[in-house]
Amino acid sequence: MIEMHDIWKTYADGTTALQGVNLVIDRNEFVYVVGPSGAGKSTFMKLIYREEVPTKGQISVNGFNIGKLKHRKIPFVRRNIGVIFQDYRLLPKLTAFENVAFAMEVIETPRRLIRKRTMEVLELVGLKHKAGSLPAQLSGGEQQRIAIARAIVNNPSVIVADEPTGNLDPETSWGIMNLLEEINFRGTTIVMATHNKEIVNTMRKRVIAIENGSIVRDQQRGEYGYEI
Ligand code: ADP
Ligand code: ADP
């Protein structure tokens, strides 16, 4: 469902972040992306959610060649990809409910469905009782759960998570990981960049290591493989 063929990415200032990446991620896989800072992990993730386009090579998600996508088609691709960030990125003036509902409003979902589906995903992440809270009234772990609810509300086939536990304590991080595992179990592909050695070495999944813009390791039930 995600295919990269000889992907290169050079930014405007001349920095080459990816050099000749090839890979296939199948439907319903759970993949960790690991590697040192500056290796190209975020760039790799941004290409999948079409925040960046490759300088060279083909990338397809669900059969769409997303490097060559016409601008007006971008929303159709993004609807099918949920994104989760280390810093949550909730809209601060909207409640938890409104943050999640907003993701459905932008794709013009009927109001009646928005209310029902938003409450359903808030329940799934265990925060129905916080629907009326503003992000500032929630803990980091709760904010990340709302961000996850927002990411899954439109039933995407893929979740891209860039260091989703990076700002959280170990116990809260495990709660987030259990939630992501449950979402994966329900049929969503998950691609997650992380520096969390303990999580990778405990929840054994496919591990792709990127160093200096290239994939240097790709193992099923792999290990973190770095000291920190
Ligand atoms: P990682 O997520 O593994 O830390 P990144 O993909 O963020 O790696 O960065 C890979 C390389 O690309 C680094 O050298 C970084 O400084 C550079 N880079 C990332 N984003 C940009 C950008 N917008 N413009 C120029 N260089 C960038
Ligand atoms: P741009 O077209 O300039 O990339 P967007 O308005 O599309 O800006 O994106 C705004 C912000 O939302 C960016 O920070 C981007 O990383 C993030 N984003 C893009 N796609 C998604 C998505 N599917 N889910 C969550 N956040 C997204």
UniProtKB/TrEMBL annotation:
It is a peripheral membrane protein. It is found in: Cell membrane. InterPro entries: AAA+_ATPase, ABC_transporter-like_ATP-bd, ABC_transporter-like_CS, ABC_transpr_LolD-like, Cell_div_FtsE, P-loop_NTPase. It comes from the Bacteria. Residues 2-228 form the ABC transporter domain. GO terms for cellular component: plasma membrane. Keywords: ATP-binding, Cell cycle, Cell division, Cell membrane, Membrane, Nucleotide-binding, Transport. Its main location: membrane. GO terms for biological process: cell division. GO terms for molecular function: ATP binding; ATP hydrolysis activity; transmembrane transporter activity. SUPFAM superfamilies: P-loop containing nucleoside triphosphate hydrolases (SSF52540). NCBIfam families: FtsE (TIGR02673). Homodimer. Forms a membrane-associated complex with FtsX. Part of the ABC transporter FtsEX involved in cellular division. This is Cell division ATP-binding protein FtsE. It comes from Cohnella terricola. The lineage of its organism: Bacteria, Bacillati, Bacillota, Bacilli, Bacillales.
